[in-house]
């Protein structure tokens, strides 16, 4: 599974306004809801339930909030770059400015885990993270995340 399979260009955003973690999760849920024609509140609840188990803030300004939602046909993703980093209770206590939200259907254990692993491998490379932080254009961010360089790094 490639990131290109689960991340549409419409699901890549740049948030310029300050917000809280809760507001960020709601905004991500609303973007996914629009993409999937599903209720945003239900998607938010899936993300919030997972966050209650422990923060998905990985450190180095990166978070991968994720959850399971029964009505989905496949794994979907939303990417957000934040101009104002958010306190996300990350493992290193640093605020988050790069967020990859993953949402998977119930019963999609292997696909969900593959998507999480792929995102984690991609975002552990410093030059990839630097490229993402150095652009504010959603189309360019999508190209960085889904292009051949990303595919080879995440493999």
Please characterize this protein's 3D structure:
- The chain is an alpha/beta fold and 155 residues long.
- The chain has seven helices and six strands.
- The chain has a single domain, classed as Mannitol-specific EII, Chain A (3-Layer(aba) Sandwich), CATH 3.40.930.
- Helix 2 crosses helix 3 and helix 4 crosses helix 7.
- The termini are close together.
- The model has no long low-confidence stretch (mean pLDDT 89).
- What is the count of β-strands? 6
Low-confidence stretches: none
Supply the number of structural domains.
Answer: 1
| Backbone CA Rg | 14 Å
List keywords for this structure.
155 residues; PTrfase/Anion_transptr; 21% strand; alpha/beta; Mannitol-specific EII, Chain A; six-stranded mixed beta sheet; protein kinase activator activity; 6 strands
Describe the secondary structure blueprint for this structure.
Layout: H1 3-6, E1 12-15, H2 21-36, H3 40-53, E2 57-59, E3 62-63, E4 66-68, E5 76-86, E6 96-104, H4 109-123, H5 126-133, H6 138-146, H7 148-154
Parallel strand pairs: 1-5, 3-6, 4-6
Antiparallel strand pairs: 2-3, 5-6
Helix pairs in contact: 2-3, 4-7
Quick rundown:
InterPro entries: PTrfase/Anion_transptr, PTS_EIIA_type-2_dom, PTS_SugarTrans_NitroReg. By secondary structure, this protein is α/β, with parallel strands linked by helices.
């Amino acid at each position: 599974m490639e990131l290109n399979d689960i991340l549409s260009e419409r699901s890549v955003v740049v948030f310029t306004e300050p917000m809280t973690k809760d507001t960020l999760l709601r905004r991500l849920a609303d973007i996914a809801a629009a993409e999937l024609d599903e209720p945003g509140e239900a998607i938010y609840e899936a993300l919030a339930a997972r966050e209650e188990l422990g923060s998905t803030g990985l450190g180095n300004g990166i978070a991968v909030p994720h959850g399971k939602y029964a009505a989905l046909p496949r794994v979907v993703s939303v990417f957000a770059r934040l101009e104002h980093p958010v306190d996300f209770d990350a493992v290193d206590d640093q605020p988050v400015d790069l967020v990859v939200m993953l949402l998977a259907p119930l019963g999609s254990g292997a696909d969900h885990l593959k998507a999480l692993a792929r995102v984690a491998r991609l975002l552990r490379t410093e030059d990839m993270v630097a490229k993402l932080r150095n652009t504010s254009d959603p189309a360019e961010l999508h190209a960085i995340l889904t292009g051949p360089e990303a595919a080879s790094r995440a493999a």
